[in-house]
Each structure stands twice: as structure tokens, then as C-alpha cells.
Amino acid sequence: xxxxxxxxxxxxxGIHYLNCATLSPNLHTAIAAGTxxxxxxxxxxxxxxxxxxxDAAETRQLFAQLINCPDRDRIALIPSVSxxxxxxxxxxxxxxxxxxxxxxxxxxxxxxxxxYAWDEVCADKGLVVKTISPPATSQHRGADWNAxxxxxxxxxxSLVVLPHVHWTDGTRxxxxxxxxxxxxVGAWLVIDGSQSMGALPFDVxxxxxxxxxxxxxxxxLGPYGMGLAYWGETFDEGRPLxxxxxxxVGSDNFGGLANYQRAFRPKAxxxxxxxxxxxxxxxxLNAALQHLxxxxxxxxxxxxxxxxxxxxPALRNQGFWIEEADWRSHHLFGIRDTRTxxxxxxxxxxxLAQHQISASVRSDAIRVSVNTWNTPxxxxxxxxxx
Length: 386
Prior knowledge:
Elements lengths: L15 E2 L10 H14 L9 H16 L8 E4 L2 H12 L10 E5 L5 H4 L2 H7 L2 E5 L8 H12 L4 E7 L11 H11 L2 E5 L11 H4 L3 E5 L11 E5 L49 H15 L1 H12 L2 H7 L2 E2 L10 E6 L7 H10 L2 E2 L1 E3 L2 E5 L6 H10 L1
Parallel strand pairs: 1-11, 3-4, 3-5, 5-6, 6-7
Antiparallel strand pairs: 2-8, 7-8, 9-10, 10-13, 12-13
């Protein structure tokens, strides 16, 4: 079993931080890397043209390893999930065979960035967003929700966009089954990995999504403002949001930049954001990715499972609802108060604060997101507060 990693993070004593789904704490190694990077930027005469590419190449290689991608050239650097989804929308508009009336499938209470992205392409192309809701019942909810999703994917589906785990309650979606179904009908599958990358194993070769888009500041343990995307073959000749200089062929030849090029670098490189060579944030992100690879993602998920194994039945016995184990993650889960005479969410939030517990309320769920800095005492405090 992976040992607790709390000493690797900059967290004060006495705080029960169960809120990685909002923002991760910094690793000491990331702080050191960021400090060194700030000092390097303070001496710009020491930054050479090579530095515009080396950190970014390392980031792509590390993330490729994390998701079992054999080709780092399929990884692009993006500033946010909304940037990645906007790129998908721009290319969906020219998807072969696209026709008015086709559907974009999303899930109930999806994160806004995965919803707003489709407004313009729907208006321009006559597409329809269809939201797939979970069943009203609390029993077999995750299994039935997945079944509803699979049933909703038809020849009229152009795009399915969803996370690996739901951002409010950790409900897990069967990405392999969904990929098989989308391939059968010619629909794209785009995954938001913001609440799972770095905490839940993901095998891009097994799932084969058209795109995987993720923020870097949650379970990837990186800084705010840096994200990552995997772009499959579907997007090899696609249209990026930007035509920036560094995405063009020959951009590593600074002396020839005025010899303007129309061709992009191959594969995912065309989708890199401008100023991808962020001299401060990239070293911090790389330190975080190296830490995750050293720990092992399966080990991180197992550690989180060891923390919550006894907590979940204890909370259920008190009258709270939590998704069944087969259909949720260990690192993120939602708690819903189903007690007849429950005190209400305001009282629950006050109790959490009184016990020095940092967690989130998302929709009607108390969202708990643990990681390797957490200890059994953190979860015991949660049970006591609730």
C-alpha cells in the first residue's frame, strides 16, 4: 500500500482538506520548481531558444506516460478545459456528414464549460444538445444512468461529451462501452478528465477517445492556468483556435521565423496554446506529473479506497446516500442527506466548518475529494461532523 504522502504537500496541521476536486495543494517539489523558474525568468539572458521547447516536451512526455499514450506528439498544452472544448466545437462544425438535427449528448448537471461550448455550433449548424439524466431511484443509479447513456447514442448522435467521473458526486461512466457505441454510430467521444486524471487510472489505448481534455490544477496536482489535451487521429488535420508562431513547422529556427509558414507541426501540436512555453508554470506541472508517476495512479486510487472503505457504510447507516461502489470513484464521491428530518445544508456546512473540514457543496451533494495527503483522521472528522 502506498504510504500517506502528506509530508510532500504544503498543508497546515489541523485542517482536514477534502477538497481536491476544487483545487489541489502544492507539492513541495512543485514549489521548489516554481521558485527556481521565477528566478530563471528574472535572468532572461540565460533563457535560450531551446528553453521554449524543452519544458513543454517534458510535459507532453510525462502526461503521455500517465495515460498510456505511446506518442507524446498527441498531447497539447492548453490553458483551460473551455479552450479545449471550444477547439472541439470549431472542428465539430466541419465534421464529415454533420447535418441539422443531430444531437450532442451531455449528462445531467455537467460542468458549465462542457455545456456552454456548444451554443454557437448548435445555432450555426442546427444541432441539438440532449441531456441524459440519472434515474430518480437511489438504487442501481450509476448502472442505470450508464445504460441510459448507451441507449441514447444513435445514428443521430454527432458528439458525446462527458467526464470519467461526475464532478458533483463521483458517479463513474463506462468509457470503454461508450467508446464502442460511439464508434458503431460514427459519433465522437470527448472526455473531460479534470476530476480523474492523476487519481483514477486511464488507458488511452483501451478507451480510444477522440479527445481527452483536462485541467491541471486538481487531481493532476499542478498550477492553475495550465491544462492538457490528448487529440486522436480524428483531429490530425483539424482547425486550431489559434494560428500562433510556435505551432508552425520550423518554429524552432528563430532566425527563420519571418519565413512565414502555413503548415502546422504534425498531430496535436497545432492545438497548443500561444505562449505554451510558460517558463514558470510548466516546471511546476512537470514536478507534479513526476510525483504522480512515481506514486502510480492505481496506487493512488487504492490509497483513497483504503481511506473511505469504512466511512461509506458508516455514513449510510446515519441515513446518507452515496453511490454504489461499482459505479463511483474512491477519490471523489458525493454525500446526499436522505434523512427525513435532516438539519438542512446550511447546518451541515456550518458543522463542517466547525470541524475544520474543507469540502464542497455541489448541487444537492456534499462533495468529498480525497487524495494521498489525507489520513483516516480526516475521514473520522467528516463522519463526526455529519
